Amino acid sequence: MIRFRLILIGLLICLADGKREIPVGAIFHEDNYEAEIAFKYAIERVNMHEKHFELLPMIRYVSPEDSYKTEKKVCELAAEGVTAVFGPSSMLTSGIVSSICKTIEIPHIITHWDPEPIGGWDPEMQAMTINLYPEADVMSRALRDLIVDYSWKSFTIIYDSDDGLMRLKDILQIHGPADNPITVRQIDDDPDYRPLLKDIQASGESHIILEVHPNKILEMLRQAKEVKMLEEYQSYIITSLDAHTLDFEELKYSRSNITTLRLMDTKSFEIKNAVHDWEQGEARMKKVFRVSPEHVRTESALYHDAVKLYATAIRELDATEEITPSRLSCGSKNLRQWPFGLRIVNYMKVKTEHGITGPIIFDDNGRRTHFQLDIIELSQQDGFKKIAVWDPTNGKINYTRSQEDVHLQIVESLQNKTFVVASRLGAPFLMLKEKKEGEFLEGNNRFEGYSLELIDGISKILGFQYRMELVPDGKYGSYNKQTKKWDGLVKYLLDRKADLAICDLTITYERRTAVDFTMPFMTLGISILYAKPVPQPKDLFSFLSPLSLDVWIYMATAYLGVSVLLFVLSRMAPADWENPHPCKQEEVEEVENIWNMLNALWLTMGSIMGQGCDILPKAVSTRVVAGMWWFFALIMLSSYTANLAAFLTMERMDASIESAEDLAKQSKIKYGAVLGGSTLSFFRSSNFSTYQRMWAAMESTRPSVFTKSNDEGRDRVMKGRGLYAFLMESTSLEYITERYCELTQIGGLLDSKGYGIAMPVNSPYRTAISGAVLKMQEEGKLHQLKTRWWKEMYGGGRCDEQATTAAGDSAAELGIDNVGGVFVVLAFGCFCAFVIGILEFLWNVRKVAVEEKVTPWEALKAELKFALNLSITTKPVHNMLSESSSAKSSMRSKSESRRESVSVGRMHNIKSGNSMMNVDKIGFVFNNK
């Protein structure tokens, strides 16, 4: 009766206002109070603007599990002539309503997640249902794009129901066989989540996806804070679209990154206007209702948009054909269908609208496929703050904040941060400071070194505090495949015992999978530390070193050979037989040859010494021999002098190795590296055959060639006396060779890598610290630090000779392969000279035979016999050889008498006085000219 009176009053008011009444039904659960308010006052707002019709709300309440009562309430609404049914929000009761509405063809509008049935959507079954909640597959794709954008390689999913896991199917599908494992953990009704959180912490996982009911989120995060799972290295993504409505006041100062999604823009005018209507409407009803736009529930906003969309459909369809409600029955006997229902639903499917929750577009099944999601992040100052928008059209995340804003936010968070910086002892990076008498050192004052000054410089740029700690095992960090655990600095970071790790820690692929690194603050490579070979004793004959023994023997042979050849050819060549008295122009009976064996040896010796000689050959053949010898002597002398300076000023070393290839080819010299270091990892994982052989040799050598530190390796090289080489990084090697002059670097760099500051994976401070390192590099401070600790402090620069070349790089001997060409040229010249000499001799024989009128054979025998007589140095002029053989004796006597007359004349000239001597000299010069 009361209901009838209300309807009657409404009809009278409607008639009075001239508006037709169109009833709409809604079914709510008891906990949907805010959604009910949004529904009522959205209708009120519509009625204020509509001129021809008025929506009449009819609300019913059911339990989420009471299917019987739900069916009864729907049938009541149909009997009262409702033109649409909104809700309810549970999938069980909603399914019953949807089935009834389909039967009587009344539009059914829902605002909750509805999973796709097995086998896909049935268009017939979904013909009368419109869902404003984002379509499940599209929503899952949004979460997948967010995880990909965050570069999460591994993560743990915590869920509370099977429906929640179904919402994440796209996230599970992005995991490939080669990717890191994804952990999925389900929680039950037990409110103690600490054991689960501790298990996740023990696994080292720092990325967590929470797919749980909103009323469990805060309690789970509170307990995560208790077990140290809400630190800066953990990141959470909350999938609920209502997470922004929760009170995170007690958690917003946590250092974890907490991100969630929101379907509405809380800064828009529409939502502010809607909230105002809700508060004012309840105030007229003498009720207090307060809600801020930032805390409006998604369901409430969707009810508001659903009413607005439905009213638009009624208005536009009513303009062409008047929409009239009909009382319908659920009974099979009186079953009728509303003729306008299907038209309204189809119109809503093709209608594009924009509401509080953004653009509203449906597919053919009435699923909302186009919408925008705000990506919001919990901040200390403003609570949840919008950082990006996800666009479903291209699946792209568009950030609304700049990188500069992110950097400033991180820098601000660093102001009150005290970092625990882990390191290990090792000069010059970190060393214990020597105490003065009566001095007490504590905290960071206990240490000194490059690493300490580097982190101190970074802290001054970013404004944070730090505390240095030594890693207990003193190791860099390597992965044990048997135990599947890390050690050293890497383990210290994984256990969250430190925020940073700084030392000579090399950036490697294996370490990069476990921790993050900043940009390199120093570049380097692997090289070989070796002892300088002991210098050879001083040798008086070290001047012979530039030329090998073979070359010296060849030179001596060439020297003697050329001297003999010059002597023989000079006796055969007529041009080298000279008038002993050049001042006498009359015919002489004898000529002499100055080229005895001593003079020939002297000429060649003077040539090779570069000093020349006061006698020179005149015959063509002897000049050729002398010229070729001078050419040879010039080449040999220049080669000798070029190498002699190096040999006399540089100590000769007996370096037995010059590169890693030399080490790999021999077995006498052992070699090793620091156990568990990056150098050892380089050889173990290298595919280069030389390095593979070296690794096999190091691994199989007994006793072990590995050391615990660089200092141990250095001492082992010094004690090894050339029988041990140490493979280490070039920066540490340079530091050692600057202070230990008996050690040196062998060969170049085997690879190229860098030292970086390590931190836990996804540390929010990596970008800021990398920026500080880059700033120090650009300002030259990194170079200054290295110069200070490598070349100035604690004995740096002690050795004048820098270990940049191998010990075997001294000047090498010149072997026969180097100077053999000179001997070839010399031999060819000597051969040519010999041929010319023979031809010259034969020409002279022919000339003598003609002049002396003897046979050529007799002239050849006479000249050859004379040339082979080495004791004769003078030669008679051939003017009597034309006589017959019977007159040879008389000719011989005439020659003797002539020699006597010449001798008498010579004695007369000697006695002629000193005045004539000047004339002879002048005449001699004149004749020579």
Description of the structure:
- With 929 residues, the chain is of the alpha/beta class.
- The chain is built from 30 helices and 33 strands.
- The strands form nine sheets. An eight-stranded mixed sheet has the order 2-1-3-4-5-13-12-11, with helices on both faces. It has an eight-stranded mixed sheet with strand order 7-6-8-9-10-14-15-16. It has a four-stranded mixed sheet with strand order 28-29-26-30.
- The protein is elongated.
- It holds the Pfam family Lig_chan.
Portion of residues in beta strands equals 15-25%
Percent of residues in helical segments? 40-55%
How many β-strand stretches? 33
Largest sheet: 8 strands, mixed
Shape annotation: elongated
The strand order across the widest sheet is 2-1-3-4-5-13-12-11
The separation of the N and C termini measures 161 Å
Stretches with pLDDT under 50, minimum 5 residues: 1-16, 651-655, 802-810, 879-929
Please outline what is shown here.
The protein has 929 residues and is an alpha/beta fold.
Q: What's the structural blueprint in terms of helices and strands?
A:
Blueprint: H1 2-17, E1 20-28, H2 33-49, E2 53-61, H3 67-79, E3 85-86, H4 91-104, E4 108-110, E5 129-134, H5 136-149, E6 156-159, H6 162-166, H7 169-173, E7 183-186, H8 194-202, E8 207-211, H9 214-226, E9 235-238, E10 257-262, H10 269-284, H11 298-318, H12 341-350, E11 353-355, E12 358-362, E13 367-370, E14 373-379, E15 383-391, E16 396-399, H13 403-414, E17 418-423, E18 431-432, E19 447-448, H14 450-462, E20 465-470, E21 479-480, E22 485-486, H15 488-494, E23 500-501, H16 509-512, E24 515-517, E25 522-524, E26 526-531, H17 549-572, E27 590-592, H18 597-608, H19 620-649, H20 660-665, E28 670-672, H21 678-685, H22 689-700, H23 710-720, E29 724-729, H24 730-737, E30 743-746, E31 753-755, E32 758-760, H25 766-778, H26 781-792, H27 816-852, H28 856-868, E33 874-876, H29 888-911, H30 914-928
Helix pairs in contact: 2-10, 2-11, 3-4, 11-12, 14-25, 17-18, 17-19, 17-27, 18-19, 19-27, 21-22, 27-28
